[in-house]
Write a structure and sequence with these properties.
- The mean pLDDT is about 95.
- The chain has helices at about 5-20, 35-45, 55, 60, 65, 110-125, 140-150, 195-200, 215-220, 230-235, 245-250, 255-260, 275-280, 285-290, 300-315, 320-325, 330-345, 350-360, 365-375, and strands at about 25-30, 75-80, 100, 130-135, 155, 160, 170-175, 240.
- The chain is built from 19 helices and eight strands.
- Helix 15 runs parallel beside helix 17.
- The chain has two domains: about 5-85 and about 105-175, no CATH class; about 195-375, no CATH class.
- The chain has a four-stranded antiparallel β-sheet with strand order 1-2-7-4, sandwiched between helices. It has a two-stranded parallel sheet with strand order 3-8. The protein has a two-stranded antiparallel ribbon with strand order 5-6.
- By secondary structure, it is of the alpha+beta class.
């Protein structure tokens, strides 16, 4: 490497700071056999559930060079999105909907991709090199690359942890044909700590550094289609989109608020919204409310399905009227979860009377919900 590389790195850091990134570091574009092996093992064990694209894109995802053979360096950028306060106390407010911190503002994919394009464009103009930008949805192993670049390390919860920003970092990457001096990788600083593992409400970690997404509330509320498996419903509490428990439990978060200005401030209406309001959303209202939000990608039906589980866990009988209306919903998953919620919100006799008139649904999954709840109540 030469002095020109150092100047380009200084230029990149300056531009990254101007765009609101907290970190900008370099990794060499090369094979990462350890990360590729871990990914292959997770696929083989079925840990990715319905996320079939993980297996379909494995070859390209396994190495930066498989994705773009001409790449020589990967510029990894990270943006701090640490919340102003611990999100976990909201779990105790059962009439409120708990939305993951990262989803309380604009879709970070759009925000970060636009900023990456600005930086990459300036780098290409300055150096003449080819560049490509990637954010999350592309087949890039961002967390192993961020560890390789020295931004942080993959903690026992499998997310990136930084000594400066804790577990609250968005990641993006710029691949380039430039030969840039790589930064030193970061080592693991988790030690004997198990805070992130022990707090998980669904025991989604079969071992440290291993996540079974099929048990993860983030996966269940966002990626999983159809009804939520019965064994996870109570554990979901009022989490209707994602789960921050393992991130929020990380002791390294104590440094996050001190390190950088928070660039993505949560929308006031999404900090502690009422469940009742969300249960009333039709498709048009859902799209309007979550325009520009990452929540929009799961669609209204999955969103309301999640809210019905939260309603069933709330113990708030005033929500029963909203849930009852959703027995007429066009979505079988919504109707199914409305049955589950009502079985927990209505007195036994009232639910039994309702079951006698409504349990002959056209869809088998809905009829199964009625039957199970009737048997539970010994109707």
């Amino acid at each position: 490497m030469n002095q020109g590389s150092d100047k380009l790195k200084a230029f990149l850091l300056k531009e990254a700071r101007a765009e609101g990134f907290s970190e900008c570091r370099i990794a060499r574009a090369e094979d990462m056999p350890k990360a590729a092996q871990a990914l292959a093992e997770g696929i083989a064990r079925g840990h990715f559930g319905e996320m079939a694209w993980m297996a379909e894109t494995f070859e390209r995802r396994s190495s930066p060079l498989k994705l773009w053979p001409e790449a020589r360096s990967v510029i990894m950028l990270a943006m701090n999105y640490g919340p102003e306060e611990d999100p976990r106390p909201l779990l105790a407010q059962k009439d409120r909907a708990n939305i993951s911190v990262y989803a309380r503002n604009r879709d970070y994919h759009d925000v970060i991709k636009g900023k990456l394009k600005q930086i990459a464009g300036k780098l290409a103009a300055r150096s003449g090199a080819e560049v490509k930008v990637f954010v999350d949805t592309a087949p890039v192993m961002e967390k192993p690359l961020a560890e390789k670049a020295g931004i942080g390390w993959q903690g026992k919860h499998t997310n990136l942890v930084s000594r400066q920003f804790g577990s609250w970092l968005f990641l993006g990457s710029i691949f380039t044909t430039l030969e840039l001096e790589p930064d030193a990788s970061e080592r693991d600083h988790c030690g004997s700590c198990r805070a992130c593992l022990d707090i998980c409400p669904t025991n989604a970690f079969p071992a440290p550094y291993t996540l079974d997404a099929r048990r993860c509330i983030s996966y269940l509320t966002i990626e999983h289609h159809g009804v939520i498996p019965l064994e996870f419903r109570t554990a979901m509490g009022n989490r209707i989109y994602g789960c921050d428990d393992c991130l929020a439990a990380c002791p390294w978060n104590k440094f996050a608020a001190q390190s950088a200005e928070i660039k993505l401030i949560a929308r006031d209406d999404l900090k502690a919204p009422l469940l009742a309001d969300f249960l009333a959303l039709d498709d048009t209202a859902f799209r309007a409310l979550f325009s520009g939000s990452p929540i929009k990608r799961i669609g209204r039906n999955r969103f309301v399905r999640n809210c019905l589980i939260a309603a069933g866990n709330s113990g708030d009988e005033t929500l029963a009227a909203r849930c009852r209306l959703l027995l007429e919903d066009e979505s079988p998953a919504v109707r199914s979860m409305a049955v589950w919620a009502l079985a927990r919100l209505l007195p036994g006799r009232e639910f039994a009377a309702l079951a006698r008139t409504r349990s002959h649904d056209s869809e088998e999954i809905v009829r199964r919900e009625w039957k199970r709840e009737e048997e539970t109540l010994c109707i």
